[in-house]
Design a protein that fits this description.
The complex is a heterodimer of chains A (474) and B (401). Chain A has 16 helices and 20 strands. By secondary structure, chain A is α+β, with helices and mostly antiparallel strands. Chain A folds into five domains: 5-91, Uridine Diphospho-n-acetylenolpyruvylglucosamine Reductase, domain 2, CATH 3.30.43.10; 98-215, Uridine Diphospho-n-acetylenolpyruvylglucosamine Reductase, domain 3, CATH 3.30.465.10; 219-330, Alpha-Beta Plaits, CATH 3.30.70.2190; 335-410, 2-Layer Sandwich (Alpha-Beta Plaits); 433-473, no CATH class. Chain A has a seven-stranded antiparallel sheet with strand order 15-12-14-13-18-20-16, with helices on both faces. A five-stranded antiparallel sheet of chain A has the order 5-6-10-8-9. Chain A is globular and about 70 Å long. Chain B has 14 helices and 19 strands. Chain B has helices at 3-11, 32-45, 94-103, 119-125, 132-135, 170-174, 207-219, 232-235, 250-264, 273-286, 303-313, 336-348, 360-366, 376-387, and strands spanning 16-17, 26-27, 49-52, 66-69, 76-80, 85-89, 106-107, 142-149, 154-155, 182-190, 192-193, 197-205, 226-230, 240-248, 269-270, 292-297, 318-322, 327-332, 353-357. The radius of gyration of chain B is 21 Å and the shape is globular. The chains are: A alpha+beta (474), B alpha+beta (401). The interface between A and B is large, with 105 and 92 residues. The structure holds flavin-adenine dinucleotide. The site of flavin-adenine dinucleotide has 36 residues of chain A, from β3, α5 and β10.
Chain lengths: 474, 401
């Protein structure tokens, strides 16, 4: 099915003809996001320049019951921003204004297309930054972060996106506008901001986002520890969490990941014979206090069996240590034509066991599983490089993913910690939630979007939701 | 069959407690399943159910056909001190939870106002205390929960891990909803290790002087665990007080103490441990010193105006403001009309007023939240119909038009 010509003409009239894309070649560039296993070409692409245009677009589409999908930078890793050929992709990358930075109240108001790192840059002159820092922060948008409830390395100490969003202006799927929350974080009624964050584009399009800003820590220490066994590294993570120290970041890379990073242009000097390395960052406002915590962490790491512990002596060394971590996905992506970045969470105390189980899954299926992840949160990212044109390889990767989900849920964890469910993980939702809980989620979706035209076919596994009829008990 | 008989036949005779003076039956389910059975039956039969925790913040004065108390849902069902996560049933007393956590070296960075509160009540009302400024609101500590909906379905959003984006965040919807969508029967909280250093500083002075000092502290990039401006009636003193709580590792707390002194340009007294514990528990207890407690949310920079507004409309009584989050809490004795007018005036300045505690007639006519912003009322109404299709739960969320 394609989009009716009359609707395309109406969209052109709203945004100007230059901002509607409909040729095959143009649509093909929007057929994928960061998830390599799914592709889908939208029926049309429209790129509004103002929030008013977004409202008019949604009204136009809603009046014809045409589905639509919001899209930020398209870096999502769960296929959330994919649209089918009967749907219109609404790309928000022209809505890039930072509307306000209010240092006295530590908040900022932005349009959804603002790139994450730009907001921190704008706040920097006031000694503030936007704390959630996904590894994709140089490209991903705040709107996409809100929709996915994105995390990042420093979310261990500072919290994920939902902990930083105060107020949202939302264009509802019927074209109505609602302002959720308030600038001070005290909701007018139930917490609809909390409900909207992480709703993956199914509740409408966020057009104005008010976020909390956080003081930039002035004292920072970064340590690298390496371990002869994966289990010992996992135990070191538990020891640090238990100690009561709250590192700003606590990241782990395993042997497979270290090898790939060190063989790439992003080599950071990680020891290639290690089973795992831990990157620990401590921060605060006082040099002496952070140095004292750093010494304590160093001791904990050694006691937990680290072979060596290195403390970055200067900013250059710190940047280098982080570069390996930040570019790990890039390096892994060069191994093969495709890369699946998995995303699960387990209780932190379960890390030693689960890491061994994941290794076993890789061995059994003959897949190189490389782990680079937010260990302090128990948020795993098992990565699998493969050739997407090799059907057998794709199937092995799918089997490994399913096995990883089961292991993590069985350990008390979840199927996604920050990348979302999207198209990719609907099939695993019933591992986590029973039919009534899924039914409740579906009922909430219907409140926001009774016609189910905003990002249809995502998040909820339709068949597994027990039906909830509005106003009538079943 | 009377309601009491129906309930007895459903969940057993011993699950029905003595009725109160009004003859209202009170059922105390021992499990989520029993709570679900009761609510399903009530929803089908068209009974109106009042949900009770410790009966401190929702007084037991709402008219209903049946009271459902969480008092027998009183177990801490999971506590992992290594992972710093715990699950408590709704009827667990907050103080008991705190004690059980402390025994294991763990701590929930929440200090709910009031006394004798239950876990379910704290979560349902989202009443965070002074620590909100440093550690976030109740919602920021809840990893998952169990909600038995108005029509008796058991919904379990979230989980036991500290990061989780699987599905919609219905735990946020339930937290702070005053039970509008169902009974919160169990809550999983994110914990921290018991702080190594916990220091309290106090200065007294005029409201404006102390507020200025508090703003300078925030402006210097310092975020104390608590930064609380306490009115004379609440401080039981002639002057206002600024109470600061610094929490963290020893060196960090010492360094912050020095930074606070420098930024505030004000002399602080450091309280010994027993006095600081008393100070904070007095502040919390005061939040229920009158029959009514309201909460207003403003911005740190607009706190003076908001405090003026409160002083203009409400009698001088217990009042305390969490400066970092811009939250004002007032408790005292006042009339329906005064709160209504204050809410109206506050709304014009974009300040939401939440009625946290009040005698039934005021709760009923003003609603916990009152008027919403554009577009929100319809969403809330429909969400309520989805979770409580027959209006079984007696929860006045909106103002009576
Ligand atoms: C190399 C790499 C590293 C990454 N690292 C991290 C990481 O550390 N942490 C992490 O959490 N994620 C990470 N990601 C995933 C991704 O960057 C995040 O999910 C990000 O939040 C997506 O933002 P986006 O602008 O690209 O959104 P898109 O991919 O364009 O969209 C994502 C979803 O958001 C919806 N959406 C977009 N804008 C709006 C809006 N304004 N209103 C409503 N819905 C909207 C879309 O419909 C879609 O469902 C990484 C991705 C890559 C490629």
């Amino acid at each position: 099915m394609t989009i009716p010509a009359g609707v395309l003409a109406a969209l052109s009239a709203i945004v100007g003809p230059g901002w509607v894309r409909q040729s095959d070649a143009e649509l093909e560039t929007y057929a994928g996001d960061g998830l390599p296993t799914h592709r889908s070409r939208p029926g049309a692409v429209v790129i509004p320049g103002t929030r008013e245009e977004v409202i008019r677009i949604v009204r136009e589409l809603a009046s014809h019951s045409i589905p639509f999908v919001a899209r930020g930078a398209g870096t999502g890793l769960s296929g959330g921003a994919l649209a089918s050929d009967d749907a219109v992709l609404v790309v928000l990358t022209r809505l890039t204004r930072i509307l306000e930075v209010d240092p006295a109240n530590r908040l900022a108001v932005v349009e959804p297309g603002v790139v994450n790192v730009r907001l921190s840059a704008a706040a920097a002159p006031h000694g503030l930054h936007y704390a959630p820092d996904p590894s994709s922060q140089t490209v991903c948008t705040i709107g996409g972060n809100v929709a996915e409830n994105a995390g990042g390395p420093h979310c261990l100490k500072y919290g994920v996106t939902t902990n930083h969003v105060l107020e949202l202006e939302v264009v509802l799927p019927d074209g109505g506008v609602a302002t959720l929350g308030s600038r001070n974080g005290e909701p007018w009624g139930p917490d609809l901001v909390g409900l909207f964050v992480g709703s993956e584009g199914l509740f409408g399009i966020a057009t104005r986002i008010t976020v909390r800003l956080t003081p930039v820590p002035t004292a920072v220490r970064t340590l690298l520890a390496d371990f002869a066994a994966l289990r010992t590294a996992g135990e070191a993570v538990s020891a640090i969490i238990r100690s009561g120290l709250v590192p700003a970041a606590l990241e782990m890379m395993d042997r497979n990941c270290i090898g790939v990073v060190e063989a790439s242009i992003y080599a950071a000097g990680y020891p290639t014979d290690a089973a795992a390395v831990l990157l620990v960052e401590l921060d605060g406002a006082d040099e002496g206090a952070v140095a004292a915590e750093c010494a304590e962490v160093e001791l904990l790491l050694r006691e937990s069996g680290a072979r060596t512990v290195r403390v970055a002596r200067d900013e250059a060394e710190r940047t280098r240590l982080w570069q390996g971590r930040k570019k790990a996905f890039g390096a892994l992506g060069r191994l093969s034509s495709d890369l699946v970045v998995q995303d699960t969470v387990v209780p932190r105390s379960a890390l030693p066991d689960v890491l061994e189980q994941l290794e076993a899954i890789g061995n059994e299926l003959g897949i190189n599983v490389a782990n680079v992840f937010h260990a302090g949160d128990g948020n795993l990212h098992p990565n699998m490089a493969f050739d997407g044109s090799d059907e057998a390889a794709v199937e092995r990767v799918e089997r490994a993913s399913a096995a990883i989900m089961k292991v993590c849920v069985a350990a008390g964890g979840t199927i996604t910690g920050e990348h979302g469910v999207g198209s990719d993980k609907r099939r695993y939702m019933s591992l986590m939630f029973d039919a009534d809980t899924l039914g409740a989620m579906h009922a909430v979706r219907l409140v926001f979007d009774p016609a189910e035209i905003s990002n249809p076919g995502k998040v909820l596994p339709a068949h597994a939701c027990r039906e909830w009829k509005m106003g009538v008990a079943s | 069959m009377t309601i009491v008989h129906r309930i007895r036949s459903l969940v057993g005779t011993d699950a029905v407690l003595e009725t109160d003076g009004t003859g209202l039956p009170r059922v105390a389910p021992r499990s989520e399943e029993e709570a679900a059975l009761v609510l399903r039956t009530a929803s089908e039969a068209g009974w109106r159910v009042r949900v009770e925790g410790a009966r401190r913040w929702s007084p037991d004065d709402a008219p209903a056909d049946l009271a459902l108390t969480t008092q027998r849902l009183s177990e801490i069902t999971f506590l992992d001190p290594a992972d710093l996560v715990a699950t408590a049933q709704a009827g667990v007393a907050w103080d008991d939870l705190r004690g059980a956590l402390a025994d294991q070296g763990a701590w929930a960075a929440l200090d709910p106002p009031g006394t004798g509160r239950s876990v379910g009540s704290v979560v349902a009302t989202a009443t965070a205390g002074p620590l909100r400024g440093g550690f976030g609101n109740v919602r920021d500590h809840v990893l998952g929960l169990t909600l038995v909906t108005g029509d008796g379905r058991v919904v379990r959003p979230g989980g036991r891990v500290v990061k989780n984006v699987a599905g919609f965040d219905l735990a946020k919807l339930a937290t702070g909803s005053f039970g509008a969508f169902g009974v919160v029967t169990s809550v999983t909280l994110r914990l921290r290790a018991v702080p190594r250093a916990d220091m309290t500083l106090v200065a007294t002075g005029t409201r404006d002087g102390l507020l200025g000092a508090a703003r300078r502290i925030l402006g210097a990039g310092i975020t104390p665990g608590a930064l609380e401006l306490v009115a004379p009636a609440a401080a039981q003193a002639a002057d206002w007080a600024l109470a600061i709580r610094l929490i963290g590792a020893d060196a960090e707390v010492q360094a912050t103490r020095n930074a606070v002194g420098g930024a505030a340009a004000l002399g602080f007294a450091e309280l010994p441990a027993h006095e600081s514990a008393r100070l904070w528990s007095d502040i919390l207890a005061g939040a229920e010193s009158g029959p009514t407690t309201v909460r207003l949310g403003t911005l740190p920079s607009a706190l003076d105006d908001a405090l003026d507004l409160v002083a203009h409309h409400l009698p001088e009584a217990w009042l305390s403001a969490t400066v970092g989050s811009g939250t004002i809490r007032w408790s005292g004795d006042t009339t329906h009309d005064r709160v209504k007018l204050l809410r109206h005036q506050a709304a014009q300045q974009e300040i939401p007023l939440t009625l946290e505690r009040a005698p039934w007639p005021m709760r009923e006519s003003l609603g916990h939240f009152g008027a919403y912003r554009e577009g929100v009322g319809r969403l809330v109404g429909q969400l309520r119909r989805a979770f409580d299709p027959h209006g079984t739960l007696v929860v006045p969320v909106d103002a009576v038009a």
